[in-house]
Amino acid sequence: MNTLNTPILFLIFNRLDTTKKVFETIKKNKPSKLYIASDGARAHKQGEKEIVQQVRNFVLENINWDCKVQTLFRQENLGCKEAVSTAISWFFNNEEMGIILEDDCLPDDSFFYFCQDLLIKYQNDTRIWLITGTNDLVENVSTDKESYYFSKYEHIWGWASWRRAWKYYDKDISYYPDLKAKNIFQKLFANKDEYLYFSKIYDKLYLKGIDTWDYQWKLTIMINNGLSIIPTVNLISNIGFGAEATHTHSAEDDNANRKTGKISFPIQHPLYIIPNFEKDEQKRKLILKKTSKLKIMINVLKTHSISEIFKKLIQKITK
Q1: Per UniProt, what is one GO molecular function of this protein (predicted)?
Q2: What would the mean pLDDT of 1-10 be, rounded to a whole number?
Q3: What does the alpha-carbon distance between residue 66 and residue 31 come to, in Å, rounded to a whole number?
């Protein structure tokens, strides 16, 4: 593996335990440029200001290699949507390409060089919008000959991209009503179930009912017919599931603490730059599996409620 010359944006906040683990992998690989961004503490969270400062201090005090460091430390809390999206914009205003890591995305060492090689290879190929380290279809073992495949689906647990792609990002998805009105949005999805699943999310997101930044990025890639690069083994373990997480609250989630593998070098490239339709179908089923589970739970609850009402009614009649 070569020197890690690719800039890294490290997004931190209030979790010292996960930050330490992710930072150790960054430190081990000694990037020549490190950008660090942190949202400000929430005013209503007692003691959070001190914790946020502690996390910032830890990272800054432990950079012990030759490295250009830039920081974006907010004094006030902007929230997930604003803080993360503006940090990424700040990063790409300064760099043509780079790697983005959040404080709970623990990478295998090979992730950095996988991204570095492919950022350079595809820097001028406008078909490619994102390189991810996460493969939620497999873990640490793969039988594929290629090192990666192309997909219509993205993942932002450890990823890399280019300024040329991020410049189209709109955190408010101001164009969304037009997509719906012209029936373009529905055509972005393979079937009705997938459309309905994402339609509910984007309706709520547009009305500012969700404080997040990532679904906007997904839609940006989709409306531009962009492709993502997915490694054939999983290179990122999300270690942030739990009560302290912003969105990933359940430590029992299937995606929590998944095993990671390694990419072998030199990278083996696919022959054709087209989506892997078989794997995309697997991914689609994985996404919709969550809604299927929810529907089953609702039906069980409905059935249970009706049966309970029926039992009570029988009891009253037979008294």
Answers
A1: transferase activity
A2: 92
A3: 9
Section 192-221 average pLDDT: 97
Q: Is residue 317 part of a domain?
A: no
For the full predicted model, state whether its pTM sits above 0.85: yes
Q: Tell me the residue range of the domain where 254 lies.
A: 8-275
Question: pLDDT value at position 242?
Answer: 61
Q: Which of 1-5, 17-21, 160-164 has the lowest mean pLDDT?
A: 1-5
Q: Determine the Cα angle at 107 with ends 103 and 109, to 5°.
A: 135
Residue that has been written with the tokens 């700040």 in this structure: 90
> Do the domain assignments include residue 292?
no
Task: Tell me if 115 is assigned to some domain.
Answer: yes
**CATH number of the domain where residue 203 is located:** 3.90.550.10
HEC secondary structure over 182-221: CCHHHHCCCCHHHHHHHHHHHHHHHCCCCCCCHHHHHHHH
Strand partners of residue 228: 130, 151
